[in-house]
Amino acid sequence: MKFTFSLKPENFIIERDDERCIRCGACVQQCAYNAHYYLEEKDKVLGINHNCVGDGRCVAICPTNAIRIKQAENPYRPNYNWTKERMMDLYEQAENGTVLLVGMGAPTPHPVYWDKIVLNASQVTNPSIDPLREPMEVKTFLGSKPDKIEVVFDKNHKPEIKTRITPQLELEVPIMFAAMSFGAISLNACKSLAKAASEMGTFWNTGEGGLHKDLYKYGKNTIVQVASGRFGVHVDYLKAGAAVEIKIGQGAKPGIGGHLPGEKVNHEISVTRAMPEGSDAISPAPHHDIYSIEDLRQLIYSIKEATDYEKPVFVKISAVHNVAAIASGIVRAGADAVVIDGIRGGTGAAPKIIRDNVGIPIELAIAVVDERLRKEGIRNHASLIAAGGFRNSADVIKAIALGADAVYIGTAALMTLGCHVCGMCYKGICNWGIATQRDDLTKRLNPEIGAERAKNLLKGWKHEIQEMLGAMGINSIGSLRGNRLNLRAVDIHEPYLSILGIKPAGA
Amino acid sequence: MNSITIDALNLYYRELNFKIKEAVRKEGIKKVIIKNARGQRFIGTGLKEKDVEIIIESGVPGNDLAMFMDGPTVKVFGNAQDGVGNTMNNGKVFIHGDAGDVICYGMRNGKIFIKGNVGYRVGIHMKEYKDMIPSIVVGGKAGDFFGEYMAGGIGVVLGLNNDDKPIVGRYCATGMHGGVIYIRTEKIPTYLGKEVKIFELNESDKEKLKSLIEEFCQEFKEYKAEDILKSRFIKLIPVSKRPYGRLYSPGNHFPLPEENYFSNKKIDIEKKYY
What we know:
The structure holds 2 protein chains of 2 kinds. Chain A is an alpha/beta fold.
């Protein structure tokens, strides 16, 4: 029994101004979801509302602004419990008994604490600093810092640092591009991010997809990832990057593995990952050589051995209930940086039920991890990188004030390349040429222009961060790190106030 | 051939591996003999020199022997621990004894020969790409989860010793979606992965198996290749390259106008927007 159309109402309504439409056919040809078509006998371009995913491609491309996309009304009886989305999900599962897939970060109404945290500024008692006229340091070093620095003087009284400093990453701006594999996103998207990162003096991350041969030249601004499927991992790959990241978990899908469907595994991906074309790229849920913190230490040190102790090793986990204790274990296992991905972290494809229900918000995770590492006296042994749904520079600076050293941005970075967060990444036919491997679609994204736009975002955020720092009367981001006195909470109540370690506004 | 002997007694793993790397990379030594290994980890890790031989003459090397290795040959005259050949890219490993768990996890190419038994989770997620075909030959018996998630390569279990364990443990080949496993047995292993089917060997299988077993017997001289090849083998190959393809929702289908009720005509548009 199959009732398809009657039970799946449209999500969007395509409105077309027929006066303005010049029948150029751009929308018809550009929409990979087939939401527009041309009816020759009537000389009309018509829309198929059911196919529309609302990614704004047609609206952006239409030369006469003839198209409007509107949210469709709920055709069902309004019900707080049984929303349209829940009903549609249920109908789909009734049809095929499958796990529902989604792309992008969770849109669920879990509280976004960034919106309830406000920053401080200097008034009268201490002067604010104008970043346009005075130096404002936002440079950040990631890696393990020594407990103390020993300086010796030679015969000519020249000082020399005797302490051996472990390898560090030098970031001109404390924002990096999050791990998105070649496979999940197109090569042009990878190129855009890699180029932007290298020109801005920050880093991009390969994700678990190996490093395409065209991207080796960005090596010194690349973080290479080792995940449970070990795709594309070999010595040259480990040595090509500036740092190696062991991926244990991802905010959008804590505790489960990855799964690149076979139809996305084309020639280039199969070369990069060294696997047959058309075969599923399955990343197991755990690393099967890591069943404990001791095993993690073993993998960290095997990577350090393989790279001759020249690269910092990061460990990425998703923010879960015991995140503070886990992070402490990771630092003690020898990681140079801990990456924590919160519940709003994005994904190319994840089961909806996991994405929307598993994990904790990143704000709480940063606060408890920083607090725990400080209490144990090991905060300097590793840097703390936060990820998962950073939307603007204020989120970044609040994360740093809570205790993060730097942040990863994924969705925000893709939005500079044209992403409209339609959430259809897992279908592999992204109209913007980002989350797709189809040649006709990927060439819509020009890596030169993409790099410029991603760079612009970092530039803008960097200036904004400098402005906010200046307003607080601080001239270096290092002075803000973990400085929670510069944060106040509006409408956050106990116990979350004490977990975040900040005072309520007015106090 | 220039060689060096290192006494590993009381050496920390970092010192030992540093010595090996120095010898191989700076002094161009082709044969490194290690005596009295005492569980030092990561021996041979990340070495890329093709014609180098590392021989562990006595003692037991520690975990992650030959991890990320890309070319050399490693011989162990004794037992080995966990993680031998982890994510190995190329080269050969011979173990004249038993080996532990998680052997050749995510291995990309090269060969591993183990005379004795292996532990759990051996051959997980081995890969394959064109002529990069990793292989592992286990002379003894294998524990649970042999060849789990296997994506490519060849796994052989011979069961030549007399201990009364089953030749492979439970859940062999679970989630397997590439490559092939040969087991010298007539019995079907218990709790075999649902993703594989059992077949008889064809000519090309026999050829592959023959070359591997000959190489095995060349190193482990007490076995004769002809005798082994006379026995009956079963072959396990995955039913699908996409074992979990149908588990996930296909999501929306985006029908073309001609597929549904609107029109049966297509238009030809100038492709100026690409």
